[in-house]
Design a protein that fits this description.
Largest sheet of chain A: 6 strands, mixed
Oligomer: heterodimer
Distance between the termini of chain A: 30 Å
Strand content of chain B: under 5%
Largest interface: A-B, 33 and 27 residues
Shape of chain A: globular
CATH superfamily of the largest domain in chain A: P-loop containing nucleotide triphosphate hydrolases
Order of helices and strands of chain B: HHEHEHEHEHHHHHHHHHH
Strand order of the largest sheet of chain B: 2-1-3-4
Number of strands of chain A: 10
Radius of gyration of chain A: 18 Å
Strand order of the largest sheet of chain A: 6-7-8-3-9-10
Chain lengths: 243, 394
């Protein structure tokens, strides 16, 4: 479970995130929805311990990212925005490297890499250097790397950016599998349809603030709209619109 | 403190870069081959030059040779070949500038008349002093002409019944105390410089790739979410760059030893001391510098946002630590205890001492090793701090 508690973060004079609070529960896919520059990435980066909040805290399964970032990191798997892979390593070696960083034994990381390669259908390119990978192959490699230590919580920053239809469908299937296995999945997106199809819960962010949160149906009702897109637009307008 | 993360990062960076052509070329080929070959070719050139210069007959162009037949006969008898040319002053200047003739001796019209009258008789010697290789020849001609003048003076004194010795009150006797090894300063300076530079280059691309490269590829952010203290990630990267520097250093020194044994410095009058023992001592003296160098390069490229930016910084920065060496070369610095506190300079001076087959002071080695290691540890700590900054993510 992930919990953001009144998170604040400024870069210079720009307040990127202003008092964001929400909860992402286990066994659910939570979508962080908002226009570009709304503060989605900054919020995620505080949750996955790369940025330290100016104020507020985030809890990963109850552990504070400020008080104990190492324990928090052990409980999360992260797919950062535009996640890069190591070109001179094979997909398998990319996965094993992160296993080693997580303190897994040689045998464990080999077994886990094989398991993930099977699960994510990476067999055709598992032992090729990542240099020449397609966008979709790179994403799978980065995702497998993020899952190597079987994290309870999975955070993904705009994972579908730049993917073709087949790759998006593959990703959707993997995220659903993770949810069904009881993981807490949190991902950010600015694409309405994606969120609509995948998410159990939605957190709508704009201007660094949460303007709506809850199950999809609730949000539609609150905005008095049947389509999420219309609901989204009316929420933006109520809150001063996108910056 | 658990160092699992340091080891994991070290192994991965070392392994990954073994597959990177750029890193391999710069660590295993450029430094270790380029430097020794350059020095070997240079020495070969100097050797052939020295052999031909020693007793070769020097060719001098003479304008209006008919005005001083005795002088020319004298020069000729002392191994100077005369080429008769017909040039005025401007023509002579042009001919020397364009290297058509290296040395031109002009005999003015009144040479014979003034000699007859016992007046100082002028001759004009054209040469280009910016061409160091010709200066020996110029010196030889000048000395011979002076000697000829002195001979005439002695004859004149004798003709007047004066003992010629009395007009030479002071006789300078030159004694050259340079040992064969100490004559090789230029070549040796260049060699130690290339050894140190080649060592730095060995880790250069890994340092860039592991910091700026990782950031540019977008894999840094995910690396930072691994449950490893951030400074440990940096320590692993520094250790990997250091490993490549060590390989490069060992290879370069070995290649120098091999190259020098082939060209044969003895012909230059240099007895270079580059046996197995000297090579091992050189490597031992330089190795403390590896930590310093890899931390230094990692810090600089850690600030860069892209591979290209890092390359730009490092092209400039890599020459900084070698500046003291250039000054040392230009000023001909002698080894002093104080210099042992200066990284790069202390290693340069120790290497030079070893190659010159002189005694090295154990105290100097101790100061150099300890102070360099302390600076290296400080820089490594600083680099670790750098990886804790948020600004790192850009």
């Amino acid at each position: 479970m992930l919990e953001a508690r009144d998170l604040n973060k400024s870069f210079g004079s720009v307040a990127a995130v202003r008092g964001v609070s929400f909860i992402a529960r286990d066994g659910q896919i939570t979508g962080l929805l908002g226009p570009n520059g709304a503060g989605k990435s900054t919020t995620l980066r505080m949750l996955y311990t790369v940025l330290e909040p100016d104020a507020g805290d985030a809890l990963i399964d109850g552990r504070s990212v400020i008080a104990d970032p190492l324990a928090a990191r052990r409980a999360i798997g992260v797919l950062s925005h535009g996640a890069g892979v190591y070109g001179h390593l094979t997909a398998r070696e990319n996965i094993a490297y992160f296993g080693e960083l997580h303190g897994m034994s040689r045998a464990d990381r080999a077994a886990r890499a094989a398991e993930l390669i099977e699960q994510l259908e990476m067999q055709p390119f598992a032992d090729r250097f990542a240099k020449g990978f397609s966008q979709g192959q790179r994403l799978k490699t980065a995702l497998a790397r993020a899952l190597v230590h079987k994290p309870r919580n999975v955070l993904l920053d705009e994972p579908t950016n730049g993917l073709d239809v087949m790759a998006v469908r593959g990703l959707r299937r993997i995220l659903t599998q993770l949810r069904d296995a009881g993981h807490c999945v949190l991902f950010s997106s600015h694409v309405m349809q994606e969120v609509e199809e995948l998410c159990d819960e939605v957190v709508v962010i704009t201007g660094g603030q949460v303007v709506a949160a809850g199950a999809l149906a609730e949000i539609r009702t609150r905005a008095g709209n049947q389509r999420l897109e219309d609901a989204f637009v009316s929420l933006m307008n109520d809150n001063g619109g996108p910056r | 403190m658990k160092l699992r993360g340091v080891w994991a990062v070290f192994r991965k960076e070392f392994h990954e870069n073994l597959r990177d052509r750029r890193t391999l070329l710069s660590a295993l080929v450029f430094g270790p081959v380029f430097g020794p070959v350059l020095v070997a070719v240079l020495v070969q050139f100097l050797v052939s030059r020295a052999e031909t210069q020693l007793d070769e007959s020097l060719t001098v162009a003479v304008a209006h040779a008919e005005r001083a037949p005795n002088l020319l006969a004298y020069l000729n008898a002392h191994g100077i070949d005369i080429v008769r040319v017909d040039l005025d002053e401007a023509g002579a200047r042009r001919a020397v500038t364009s290297q058509q003739h290296k040395i031109i001796l002009e005999i003015p019209a009144d040479f014979g008349a003034r000699l007859q009258e016992g007046q100082p008789a002028p001759v004009i010697l054209y040469s280009d002093s910016s061409r160091a290789f010709d200066q020996r020849g110029v010196g030889r001609v000048r000395a011979l002409v002076s000697q000829y003048g002195l001979d005439i003076a002695q004859l004149r004194f004798l003709a007047r019944g004066i003992e010629p010795i009395s007009v030479i009150p002071i006789a300078v006797q030159e004694i050259d105390v340079s040992t064969p090894s100490s004559r090789s300063v230029f070549v040796l300076n260049m060699m130690t410089y290339l050894v140190l530079l080649s060592m730095l280059f060995g880790g250069l691309y890994l340092a860039i790739d592991a910091t700026a490269g990782e950031r540019e590829r977008g894999s840094l952010e995910m690396l930072l979410t691994a449950p490893v203290p951030r400074e440990h990630l940096m320590y692993g990267k520094i250790a990997a760059a250091a490993a490549y520097m060590l390989i490069s250093l060992v290879l370069t020194v070995t290649m120098f030893a091999v190259a020098i044994s082939f060209v044969g410095l003895e012909k230059l009058g240099i007895t270079a001391n580059l046996g197995l023992r000297a090579a091992a001592t050189m490597i031992a003296c330089c190795s403390p510098l590896i930590l310093f160098g890899s931390a230094y390069l990692s810090i600089v490229s850690g600030f860069a946002k892209s591979y290209r930016e890092a390359q730009t910084y490092l092209g400039l920065v890599i020459t900084l630590p070698t500046l003291p060496l250039m000054f040392a070369g230009m000023l001909g610095l002698q080894t002093k205890t104080g210099f042992m506190f200066v990284p790069f300079l202390s290693q340069h001076l120790l290497l030079t001492t070893v190659v010159r087959a002189e005694e090295i002071e154990p105290m100097h080695v101790a100061i150099s090793v300890v102070s360099t290691l302390v600076y290296g540890a400080l820089l490594t700590w600083l680099a670790g701090r750098l990886y804790r900054r948020e600004g790192l993510l850009g």
